[in-house]
Amino acid sequence: MMDPAFCTASGVLGAILGSFLGVVVERLPRWMREEEGAGNLLYPPSHCPACQHRLRWWENIPLVSWLMLRGRCCRCRSAIPLRVLMVELLSALFFALSAWLILDLPVLLALWLLWCGLLPLAMIDLRERLLPDCLTQPLLWAGLLLNLHTHLLPLADALYGAVAGYLALWLVYQGHRLVTGREGLGYGDFKLLAALGAWCGWQALPSILLLAALGGILGWAICFRHQENDNVIPFGPFLAFAGLIIFILQHAIFTF
């Protein structure tokens, strides 16, 4: 196990990155719909969406500021979404726990990178029913380049995994549309599974799909069963969770 100081520093890094990932989750869907004109992920600076108050440095400290402000803007007292705190907290805990358990530094860094790609994808899909290409495609290329330079997997397995991941859900989509006349999946799901195939290899795809399907069934039964909108549920969060778990089982278990 890693040194406690390293784990603490990893948790702080996770909170900082979680703060940026929260910005991605909040701004990217609006930016893609062009609701903010020429805005992007870095501009305008962090501000209250209700009163446009620009946050001062002490209002922008991960975890601490939300707790100090009690989840409200200091000027207009409008609520700061709890999900902002949860993204920072989950990232801090994940980074600290993974640093505590995983001794292999390349595996640890790869796991952190995968987390930073999957977390915003899962949260955006949960809220918007959208898996943006500007996140799935870099995640796919990152998986291929990672296996090219670190050899966590043979590059051929990663390449075949990307191709097979896309084709697997594309065939499901076409079959469902042929039988029912309706779309059962979004194209973003194909691309996300292709990215996970690039990270985990083609051999992991059945396990990822099985775990994601079981999670989707459980999620539908608990959270989505009584919603309107024809019981449509996002599959991306379950794919992301399954891919993260399989990646950990593939690599991290050998470091204990």
Report the major sheet.
none
Shape: globular
Total domain modules: 2
How many β-strand stretches? 0
Distance between the termini: 8 Å
Please, how many helices? 9
Average of per-residue pLDDT values: 85
State the order of secondary-structure elements, H for helix, E for strand: HHHHHHHHH
Work out the strand percent.
under 5%
Helix content: 55-70%
The stretches of 5 or more residues where confidence is low (pLDDT under 50) are none
Based on secondary structure, the structural category is mainly alpha
Radius of gyration: 19 Å
InterPro entries: Peptidase_A24A_bac, Prepilin_IV_endopep_pep, Prepilin_pept_A24_N, Prepilin_peptidase/N-MTase
Membrane topology: Multi-pass membrane protein
Transmembrane segments: 6-25, 80-103, 109-127, 139-172, 192-220, 232-253
EC number: 2.1.1.-, 3.4.23.43
What descriptive keywords fit this protein?
single chain, 256 residues, 2 domains, 67% helix, 0% strand, protease
Can you offer a commentary on this structure?
- By secondary structure, the protein is mostly helical.
- It folds into two domains: 101 residues; 155 residues, no CATH class.
- Helices cover 67% and strands 0% of the residues.
- Helix 7 runs parallel beside helix 9 and helix 8 packs across helix 9.
- It is globular, with a radius of gyration of 19 Å.
- The mean pLDDT is 85.
